[in-house]
Design brief:
Layout lengths: L1 H39 L11 H4 L3 H44 L16 H49 L7 H28 L8 E4 H19 L2 E7 L2 E4 L1 H18 L4 E9 L2 E7 L7 H4 L19 H11 L3 E6 L5 E8 L1
Parallel strand pairs: 2-4
Antiparallel strand pairs: 1-3, 4-5, 5-7, 6-7
Helix pairs in contact: 1-3, 3-4, 4-5, 5-9, 6-7, 7-9
The structure holds adenosine-5'-diphosphate (ADP) and magnesium ion.
Length: 353
């Protein structure tokens, strides 16, 4: 506040000094002009009875000079106030908000400016945009921390309970029990791996091992791995691969396709499940379509955010589609979710080839 106050005082002081200097210069200038004229050609001043009377201004002239100076100073003061207000007010607002942001209050915003086109208004807008971004990042960080803690807690609690039961002899050691322990550990491992991938992708450091890939072979391998579960649940899988060798990271593509198929298994109603690969307009499209119940339009854009789950979420962590999106974007492409001709959802993963 003090800096802004001194800035406005400095603007006023400079303007008033400028006005004073200009007025004095013009007064003294005309004084000097008439003096030189008189000295060079006294005949031009016939009424002058003695030279001395010309050198000193008359009381009327003194008054005129004082009035001119006063009016000039008044006008300068007025203009300085008018000039400093639109500069100083937004500066003040930004400085005050900045201080609050530094103290940890990220919800603060700087006040508006009457002139929405000035540079000062742009400063306020930029500051507010920065504060908003900071607040959103802070919110996301808190949300992530809470979500990760929540996701880790469940399997760890289950593991501890079972292991405690085993040590205390409450549970009989059996292959089924060890199998369930292993499932929990695998779930934890996957969660950690998904988080690691998303962390790398966020920092732009998700490295791909791109090579010319026979997508038909990759798709078949993934489908073969999950087909028994899909068939058992009542899905009929159809595959159409209409692409030869395509440049991509085969391991990541398998991971993405597996996540999409697992989602169908977990969230879609049993029925036809269609997988298609085709090249369209320089992009390779990997399409997975199911026959219902679909993702509501309102959720379709957010569904790819981490920990975002829809109405049917089963026991998933909500990271599957975020991982698919990270893989698509690392390939320079993207993934969208739209209604499918089959009546459910179509996930369309595409990347330039
Ligand atoms: N094929 C699908 N049909 C309907 N809803 C789906 C489908 N795939 C995903 N979803 C919705 O999207 C949400 C996010 O999916 P995902 O990120 O894989 O998390 P998760 O599967 O762990 O819940 C799911 O919770 C589900 O509600
Ligand atoms: Mg999933």
């Amino acid at each position: 506040m003090r800096e802004a106050g001194s800035l406005s005082r400095r603007i006023i002081r400079s303007m008033v000094s400028l006005a004073l200097v200009t007025t004095l210069l013009s007064l003294l200038g005309s004084y000097a002009f008439y003096a030189v004229w008189f000295l060079l050609s006294p005949g031009s001043f016939p009424d002058a009875d003695s030279a001395g009377s010309y050198w000193l201004p008359t009381p009327l002239e003194w008054g005129w000079m004082a009035l001119t100076i006063a009016v000039a100073l008044g006008a300068a003061l007025l203009f300085a106030l008018k000039l400093s207000k639109p500069i100083v007010a937004p500066l003040n607002a930004v400085a005050e908000s900045l201080r609050q942001v530094a103290q940890g209050n990220l919800s603060v915003r700087a006040g508006g400016d009457e002139n929405p086109h000035g540079e000062a208004a742009q400063l306020v807008r930029d500051f507010n945009a920065m504060a908003e971004r900071l607040e959103r990042m802070d919110h996301e960080r808190r949300f992530w921390n809470a979500a990760i803690a929540h996701e880790l807690r469940t399997p760890v609690t289950v593991l501890r309970g079972r292991l405690q039961g085993l040590t205390e002899g409450v549970f009989e050691p059996s292959p089924a029990l060890f199998c369930s322990l292993l499932t929990q550990v695998e779930g934890l491992g996957r969660l950690i791996e998904d988080l690691r991938l998303l962390g790398l992708a966020e920092n732009g450091r998700l490295e791909l091992r791109q090579e010319l890939t026979d997508l038909e072979a990759e798709v078949t391998a993934v489908v073969r791995a999950i087909e028994p579960s899909l068939q058992e649940a009542g899905f009929t899988v159809s595959c159409h691969v209409d692409a030869q060798q395509v440049l991509c990271d085969p391991v990541r593509m398998r991971q993405a396709l597996l996540a999409l198929l697992e989602n169908a298994l977990r969230h879609a109603v049993p029925g036809p499940l269609r997988i298609q690969v085709r090249i369209l307009g320089g992009n390779c499209h990997l399409l997975v379509e199911d026959c219902g119940p679909g993702v509501p339009d309102t959720l379709a854009a957010q569904i790819f955010e981490a920990f975002q789950r829809g109405a049917s979420h089963g026991h998933g962590s909500g990271l599957g589609l975020a991982v698919v999106q990270a893989i698509a974007r690392a390939h320079g492409g993207d993934v969208i979710c739209r209604p499918s001709m089959l009546g459910g959802t179509a996930f369309d993963l595409c990347w330039p080839v």
